[in-house]
Every structure is written in C-alpha cells, then in structure tokens.
Specification:
168 residues, alpha+beta, 50% helix, 4 helices, 2 domains, two-stranded antiparallel sheet
C-alpha cells in the first residue's frame, strides 16, 4: 500500500535516480574493488618474487564491462612488457620459459659482437650461451581465481549498501 502521493513521487524520483546511476556505480565499484582485491595482491606477490618493476607496474584493470541483460561484470586485467626485440617478458614471467640460447645481436643489427655482464665483481663476456629458463610463477591467473569469490561478495555488499542509501 502506498502511504500517500508525496511518498509515491519521492519513490519514483529515487527509482529514476537509481536507474540513471546504476551502470556507472557498478563499473566504478567493480574497478575499485578489483584493484584492491586482485591487482594489489598480484603486484605485491610479483615484488616478493623479484619480478621486474617494469612488469608489475603494467598490471592494471584495463576494462570493466557490465552486461545488463545477464547482470554479469567482466573485468579485464592487463599486464604486458615487451623487450626491445618484441619478446613479451610479462608472459614469460607468468608462464615460465624453457632453457634457451642467448646470443649478441651483432654489430650489423646495432648490437655488439659479444654479451657482457658483471658476475662476482668481474666483467664476463660471451659470444652466446645457454641460460636457465624462468620458472612458471602463475601469479596473475592464481590471484584472479583466488580473488574472484571475495570480489563477488564485496561487490554484492557494496551494491546492497548503495541501493539502501539511494532508497532511504
């Protein structure tokens, strides 16, 4: 039962406001919570595993898509870092690599005749050599899976509080 016409008008305005703000609220809140509950733990674990800063600084929520027909939210988390020659180092850190040969680019390609690095306080040189592959870290995939339920629960709670605020 409707208490009176003023209540009905007020409720109608609140409903219109809710419809107008719903999509923006859901996308904004989902992005905020994904950053807090998934992206931040990914970055922290990457730091603990000595992943390059150049990689973990690229971990971002790239897009948040709200499907209003199904009520689902798709959150795209993006991480990529390419070496000078186009190799996706971020993917290599996530999925690991096999042992492989590295060689200098060669002077004809703007590089050097040999590789050079410092090891044990001494400069070392090589015309090419085998290096150990990187271990599979699987940080992003695992953290997304681990954070998905918590994100859903937090999103439901934030939506409930927001809806209560709008209609109070």
């Amino acid at each position: 039962m409707i208490p009176n016409s003023e209540w009905a008008k007020s409720y109608k305005l609140k409903t219109i406001r809710f419809q107008h703000l719903y999509k923006n609220f859901m996308k904004t809140k989902a992005t905020e919570l994904a950053n807090k509950l998934i992206v931040d733990p990914i970055i922290e674990e990457m730091k603990q595993n000595n992943v390059s800063r150049k990689i973990y600084e690229t971990v971002v929520v790239k897009d948040t898509i709200l499907d209003e027909t199904t009520g689902t939210i798709l959150i795209k988390i993006h991480c990529e870092y390419f070496s000078e020659d186009g190799f996706d180092v971020a993917v290599a850190r996530e999925y690991g690599t096999e042992d492989h040969m590295i060689r200098p680019k060669g002077k004809e390609n703007g590089g050097a005749d040999s590789l050079s690095w410092i090891q044990g306080g001494m400069r070392r040189f090589s015309k090419g050599h085998m290096v150990s592959g990187l271990p599979r870290l699987n940080i992003i995939e695992r953290r997304v899976e681990e954070g998905e339920y918590e994100l859903q629960q937090a999103m439901n709670e934030e939506y409930r509080k927001w809806k209560e605020f709008i209609f109070s």
